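Model it.
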Amino acid sequence: MQLSLDFSLDSSAGPPLSTIACPEVSKTRHLKGKQAHARGLLAEDAVAMRYTEKNAVCRGRRVRTAAGEIDLIFDQGDETVFVEVKARRSFDDAAYAVSPKQAQRIGQAALLWLSDQQSPDRSMRFDVALIDRAGHLKIIENALSFDTW
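Modeled.
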């Protein structure tokens, strides 16, 4: 980001503010953040398509609760499926990106979401969808147990 305002009235006041720029790192970081966000959305789209191909019904995307965000929620048969999507250079990098703390937060968010639903007694599972740099998709069903939350 660059500041382009010039409030100086004469040259004796020092350099105009328009010559003072934020570091280029900020521009790069902002651009990388936007690119990562776009890749995340594309990854979630690919995962959503895979689940709908398996006759799952999408109940929510990027669902926010007081405990945190859930990437995707589906009804598949008699189960509610909570999906965390991770896109990284490799499947291994993606799998390691789900930390125990994040898994705990997602589990708490899922329980909060379920408590607001009409049928809180449905069975549920937590899947992790991994996408590598080449765009290959791997879904790990029952990646974590809800018994611990």
